[in-house]
């Protein structure tokens, strides 16, 4: 019975081992026999038949790196009844497995080891799992250490708060940013550390993430640090209440104070004047836009504000006479005086010597006018600049919102238009904008605004007028003259834009551009083998007294590898009067380079013979006004003859300007005048056209053709030729791309018909079919308005232009005009 019981238990044990994949073995050390179970053989990858039970055969399976430790353990067993060991084997299929063995020892009565038995279990998967688990634990520990380092060292603040705002955790960086230690904030509500005006916004952000747990929200906030200084923070907030390890709202605060301050500094530089620290024109436009938007939406009846443009009269002269440094000091003092006077009203430096003011909270036109008068009075007291006491006057232009306009650009332009009118009316005064402000002032404003960008838009052109040796008609030189091809106003005369360029200081850039163009053209002519003439270029006093003037001239000529001898520099008497010592020095330096100096408009200013002696002038130019009147005015004739005689005696070359007919030419030839220029030879022409003239080497006076029949006789429709000019009013209705209300200008109608008319004006208008004009024509004690567009222009005298106009009308207007035309015929007793 006992034997059966033992066998049954053994079978159960074997089955349990098989189920658990545990093998067993026995080793008889006395009889040197080994026995392995079937599962033990399976673990080793063999069958019971393949194993013969020797110890050495067992060792063949053991991994070479583990043989020594296994052999040592089995040959020197512990003096214990049981022990275990781990080792690796290499199975017959080459697989490396890790085994765990539990060993039991049997000893005889003398204590000698006689028998070993044990169990074997393949723990390869277990060891791999433990290894991976260990690696994961290491990784987790590494991440935890890294997170701790990042949190400890990060300049960002990490905060965990409860839904009611209580701070549960906050990182150490909070002390660096705010001056508060983490322990001083934990347990308190985070709202306590925000500015009162920002708490509501923070609460809204919390409410948002509580309602939208999967979304993050960002915002910017301002806090006060421990010292009371403002700190700007960027916040990022997310809901982590469902995360077991966090269970709170996570906030990341980042200190953006430096970035905000840098942005403010950049914005300040962009919107403020460096010299006076006042806002600049960029800020002005922004300010007006804000006011227009705010007041345009307001229901308050008193929504008006005034924009005043103030300009220092004669500042250019002060700047030229005293230098830019003292000019800057005057600007600073003017700014300080205005700032004190205006108190909290807006003041900006709009441009060089122009300031802009916005008057708010004033009740109507009378108060605006009172302020303007007070500003005039403000400048009754002189300014102390260095050793000088300067009496300064100002001119002002004023536009009103919303009476004049509700658009910022228009308000600024209207104030500038009023300012221009104020200057034209005598300065030291103010003008409110009015729609009757004339076309010429409007044109000046447009030209002033467009002038600065005209070079980069490639709108300037250099024209050339030949200068002729009167006896032989040889071309000896050419005068370079600048023209502006304005996109709206057509070819603009230098008489219109040069004063603006001088006033704004743009004349320096313009002069440099022109000299480069002249050098470029001259080099092209020389490359073509054209005659090596001289070219004269006009320079103003502003250019002449520019720092390093002579060096700049030489550098530009050197850019084109030209000999400076080709250049003639034309200056006026005003240059010589301003700073005689510097003028003499620079003229000598220019002549040392080979550049000749011509005195332009001689006789029109404070002409003095001392100039010719002291300044070593090479060429004299008689002004065209004398040539024009040489047969009409004895004084002009005497002056012309005297200047020619003087030039011959002093051996100074002389050029007569404005030769327009053969009588004038014959007169000058009789007096042995050396050179001349004028429309009789050629009007100023573009470069390519001048090249054709230069190729001929001579320029023959243009023969005046017999007058043709009046052009109106060839027209399809009858024109009334008026016995004298009929005075009418003209305004501009439409200019492409512009939205201005322009006043009227007087014109003289020369002839008129049912389809068009011819009129004269001192305003140069563009011949542009998109330009719509409106005329108010007096007839039979009433005025008739008619619209038209210019189709041709002709300059008939200095700054006097004739225009041909085609009328624009519908059927009813045409009928009405026909009636007016008939009345005009009747009124003038003209019958055809």
UniProtKB/TrEMBL annotation:
<dbReference type="InterPro" id="IPR000700">
    <property type="entry name" value="PAS-assoc_C"/>
</dbReference>
<dbReference type="Pfam" id="PF00563">
    <property type="entry name" value="EAL"/>
</dbReference>
<feature type="domain" description="PAS">
    <location>
        <begin position="36"/>
        <end position="81"/>
    </location>
</feature>
<dbReference type="InterPro" id="IPR000014">
    <property type="entry name" value="PAS"/>
</dbReference>
<dbReference type="Pfam" id="PF00990">
    <property type="entry name" value="GGDEF"/>
</dbReference>
<feature type="domain" description="EAL">
    <location>
        <begin position="444"/>
        <end position="698"/>
    </location>
</feature>
<dbReference type="InterPro" id="IPR029787">
    <property type="entry name" value="Nucleotide_cyclase"/>
</dbReference>
<dbReference type="InterPro" id="IPR035965">
    <property type="entry name" value="PAS-like_dom_sf"/>
</dbReference>
<dbReference type="InterPro" id="IPR035919">
    <property type="entry name" value="EAL_sf"/>
</dbReference>
<dbReference type="InterPro" id="IPR001610">
    <property type="entry name" value="PAC"/>
</dbReference>
<dbReference type="InterPro" id="IPR043128">
    <property type="entry name" value="Rev_trsase/Diguanyl_cyclase"/>
</dbReference>
<feature type="domain" description="GGDEF">
    <location>
        <begin position="303"/>
        <end position="435"/>
    </location>
</feature>
<dbReference type="InterPro" id="IPR000160">
    <property type="entry name" value="GGDEF_dom"/>
</dbReference>
<dbReference type="Pfam" id="PF08447">
    <property type="entry name" value="PAS_3"/>
</dbReference>
<dbReference type="InterPro" id="IPR052155">
    <property type="entry name" value="Biofilm_reg_signaling"/>
</dbReference>
<dbReference type="Pfam" id="PF00989">
    <property type="entry name" value="PAS"/>
</dbReference>
<feature type="domain" description="PAC">
    <location>
        <begin position="83"/>
        <end position="135"/>
    </location>
</feature>
<protein>
    <submittedName>
        <fullName>EAL domain-containing protein</fullName>
    </submittedName>
</protein>
<dbReference type="GO" id="GO:0006355">
    <property type="term" value="P:regulation of DNA-templated transcription"/>
</dbReference>
<dbReference type="InterPro" id="IPR001633">
    <property type="entry name" value="EAL_dom"/>
</dbReference>
<feature type="domain" description="PAS">
    <location>
        <begin position="143"/>
        <end position="213"/>
    </location>
</feature>
<dbReference type="InterPro" id="IPR013767">
    <property type="entry name" value="PAS_fold"/>
</dbReference>
<dbReference type="InterPro" id="IPR013655">
    <property type="entry name" value="PAS_fold_3"/>
</dbReference>
